[in-house]
Amino acid sequence: MSDALLIRNGRPMGGKPSDILIRNGVITEIAETISAPDATIEDVAGDLVLPGLVEAHAHLDKSLWGMGWRPNDAGPRLIDKIDNERHLKRAINIDPARQSARQVVLSVGHGTTHIRSHVDVDTDHGMWGIEGVMATRAAYADIVDMDIVAFPQSGLLRRPGTLALMDQALKEGADVVGGIDPCAIDRDPKGHLDAIFGLAQKYGRPLDIHLHEQGEMGAFSFDLIFERTRALGMHGKVVVSHAFCLGAPDRDLVDPMIEQLAELDIGIMTTGPAGRPAPPVKRLLEAGIRVCSGSDGIRDTWGPYGNADMLERVMFVGLRNNFRRDEEVELAFQVCTIGGAAVMRLDNYGLKVGARADLMVVAGETITHAAVARPLRRLVVKHGRVVARYGSCVRTSP
Fold first, then answer.
1. CB 313 within 8 A of CB 271
2. Shortest CA distance to 360 belongs to which of 327, 338, 390?
3. Which residue, 109, 171, 360, 386, has fewest beta-carbon neighbours within 10 Å?
């Protein structure tokens, strides 16, 4: 079988009808008409051709997808949800390898071609999550590329032994150092941030820090993150996820943080949350800040929502930011594609000659139309090969 693929009669980024030729997993030509007798032809009849969606914040080890319905009874506080989840992992066998594989197959069917997953590391379960998600990454490497974040969900210093497990996870191949709420969870912001920045320096890895802290507490944690990023020369190597404090109404609090984010090239991840303050996406983009998005946890012990469809996430980000004009909704689409690629530092991403052939085909008159209608993805292409059709992945999950 030829390794060449010709997508005929597509509309790249909603533009004029064009053919796209792919060879050896790379886009080699985009033109009105292309002749490639050796290529497998996929005529997409005028549908949109868009870059693959980037799921830049997932928790693949913890979804209950495919495990049947479980009523949610977690307590109201963040720490209640964390403790409840840690208990239930073994009690109901939320096997990280099985569950991450299920979510990967689901995500690819929706058009996702790259995933960054935060994976729990704690003293109750040790390396169970990391090993399980690493097994999925290896087994499904033909359909998705994956970053793994070693993530101290239950806290780092408040649970002695977690730091050593984080070190082990990085030795064994985790790509990114994670962190969480230095004040609210560990109650030792200096100690927490010194530890995770120390791991990043030791292994030469980037950082992705959960920061749920709101208002002045979140701003204080940000100040400490800024100090360390600047002092250690880690410009462009830090991402802050959620960053609810950036959604504060006080511009005198928020604007100086935005200035430092831009100066230090710190990326921001927002899910477009309905129930919490949210970073102002348009202001961040105007300041030149890399902004990405993700599904976060889906169908898990924290809540029943989510389906891993990043095109639906475009809608959530748009709604949360009151994006109504087509060009505004397209900003939300950029966050879920090129923004994620910029945060994950993906090489040769996008719809252009020389880029890796990671893309999707979806019906719609425009990008905004596709984002609000969210039809099944006609085709998903990864490494130049079709990996899903009309929502059905070519791979199966356990």
1. yes
2. 390
3. 171
